[in-house]
Specification:
Layout (H helix, E strand, L loop, with lengths): L1 H12 L18 H12 L2 H6 L2 H15 L5 E5 L1 H12 L1 H5 L6 E5 L17 H10 L7 E6 L5 H12 L3 E6 L5 H5 L2 E4 L14 H20 L16 H15 L3 H10 L4 H9 L4 H10 L4 H10 L1
Parallel strand pairs: 1-2, 1-3, 3-4, 4-5
Helix pairs in contact: 4-10, 5-10, 7-8, 11-13, 12-13, 13-14, 13-15, 14-15
């Protein structure tokens, strides 16, 4: 048992994300405002670390969008904070982009209960990751993103290895250079943010970095899929009063139509923002708008072009 933990300690000692910072050894003695300033300064370094990986991120997004256009799913897999961030990003796609819950999925080691309570040993199992993906009936059209700050978490690596063995697209997102996770994936993205303010607390800079990259993966994939019109969320799902108001504002911004015209357009399209915009700008009725969008695979600009030339 001692040798087992000795080996693991040696691994942790080699990770940038686990490095001890002696200059912060007495941070608990500082005034609150000074600690906040230090944390804020630490956080400000994260975007530059992400920027260094933008070409790799863009390549991964283009490959993801290509599969998504063919019906492939985007699946995040991680443990602890990394897993929670994946679940968070996935859960926000349906209201933002009107996707089904099956299109972007977050898997966390230990299952849904691990979102709020640690599940003992779940992150240590590659087999658990393979089983979770098998339960989803993973196909070669899907994209699997393994997320792990250390880049050594067995659950994330197991997910990527299993997915790659089936021909799925694989992305490994970690915060250490030369990580096992990046090496296992077709697209390795390593955001090296350096040692944390609290030694090994990767919910801090590493978590922020992962959130920024996941924002890009999902958002730009959806842009490439035609889920936006310019920078407007034209596929937004109006599931509450705020989103119903936002829907009307989006139609207004896209078309410049009057309130009365907007209400008429939304009524004619069952509240679908993208369809409503097409009825106004393309001067077509609701059923025609739906047909044109189906023919253009949901890309509003293409549907508009078709409406104006027909």
């Amino acid at each position: 048992m001692t040798s087992q933990y000795g080996e693991l300690r040696a691994q942790l000692d080699s990770l940038t994300t686990e490095a001890f910072r002696p200059e912060l050894a007495e941070i608990d003695q500082l005034p609150t405002l000074e600690i906040a300033r230090i944390m804020n300064g630490e956080d400000s370094t994260v975007p530059a670390a992400v920027a260094a990986q933008l070409p790799r991120i863009a390549a991964a997004i283009d490959a993801t969008a290509e599969r998504a256009a063919r019906g492939g799913r985007l699946i995040y897999a991680g443990a602890g904070t990394a897993g929670r961030l994946g679940v968070l990003d996935a859960s926000e796609c349906p209201p933002t982009f009107n996707t089904s819950p099956e299109e972007v999925v977050g898997l966390i080691a230990g299952g849904p209960g691990a979102m709020v309570t640690s599940v003992e040993g779940a992150e240590d199992s590659k087999e658990l990751a393979a089983a979770d993906l098998t339960a989803m009936k993973l196909t070669a059209e899907d994209t699997v993103v393994g997320i792990s700050a250390s880049g050594r978490t067995p659950y994330a690596i197991g997910a990527v290895e299993h997915a790659r063995s089936l021909g799925a697209l694989t992305i490994g997102l970690s915060c250490n250079a030369d990580s096992a996770l990046a090496a296992a994936a077709e697209h390795g993205i390593e955001i090296v943010v350096g040692p944390e303010l609290l030694t090994g607390s990767t919910r801090l800079k590493a978590g922020t970095a992962q959130k920024l990259v996941l924002n890009m993966l999902s958002t730009i994939t959806m842009i490439r899929r035609g889920k936006t019109y310019g920078n407007l969320m034209v596929d937004v799902r109006a599931s509450n009063e705020k989103l119903r108001a936002r829907s009307r504002r989006i139609v207004s911004l896209a078309t410049g139509a009057s309130d009365e015209e907007i209400e008429t357009a939304l009524a004619a399209t069952d509240g679908e923002v993208k369809n409503a915009i097409l009825t106004v700008l393309g001067a077509v009725d609701g059923p025609t708008a739906a047909a044109l969008l189906t023919e253009s695979n949901g890309h509003l600009r293409a549907a508009l072009k078709a409406a104006r030339t027909s």
